[in-house]
């Protein structure tokens, strides 16, 4: 049975509707897939950028923290240098004050005699040599000789050994120093420096090591300052 024109038109319309429906569904499917892929790519890009931003700020934070540490370290070093300078200035002032007082001690014959006795005897004990030479200021020769005469019996009794002492009459210590003595062994290679200046310098060195300092004003301080000595070996 032959199809009429109306039937043909109807079938054509039906086929076109079917094709349009298929095309519409395909378009929707493509759009949906494209949307999904877009969202996935967008999420990936957002996450990548988020990680980069986090890394950037984390790096900046570390740089800032490091900068703070460097600044703090610099400030602490500056403060430490100021403290050290203030301490050195204080030591210098105290040394100058002590030199003035030691110069006054040397002007008091009785007090200076006691001081020299301690310095001379200490030199004997430091060296423990059978023969020693003492060097002093030219103006101190007599008072040093008296200190030697007094200390030889004390030394002999303490160490059970004899000692021969010579005062150097050719080379004297500078007259401008505060006083004290230098005691040498027989060949002059070992020296005990017991000048008042060396006592002060030793006190200053001990202060720099321990961070402590005391300036006593008692009458016996100058005598007590002879309890330590500076030993030099050449």
From TrEMBL:
Record InterPro entries: ATPase_E_C, ATPase_V1_Esu
The organism's place on the tree of life at top rank: Eukaryota
Region annotated Disordered, chain positions: 214-234
Keyword set, alphabetical order: Ion transport, Transport
Entries under Pfam families matching the protein: vATP-synt_E
One Gene Ontology molecular-function label: proton-transporting ATPase activity, rotational mechanism
SUPFAM superfamilies membership: V-type ATPase subunit E-like
Gene Ontology CC entries for this record: proton-transporting two-sector ATPase complex, catalytic domain
PANTHER family (UniProt xref): ATPASE H+-TRANSPORTING V1 SUBUNIT E1A-RELATED
Known role: Subunit of the V1 complex of vacuolar(H+)-ATPase (V-ATPase), a multisubunit enzyme composed of a peripheral complex (V1) that hydrolyzes ATP and a membrane integral complex (V0) that translocates protons. V-ATPase is responsible for acidifying and maintaining the pH of intracellular compartments and in some cell types, is targeted to the plasma membrane, where it is responsible for acidifying the extracellular environment.
Family note: Belongs to the V-ATPase E subunit family.
Protein known as: ATPase H+ transporting V1 subunit E1a
Organism: Amphiprion ocellaris
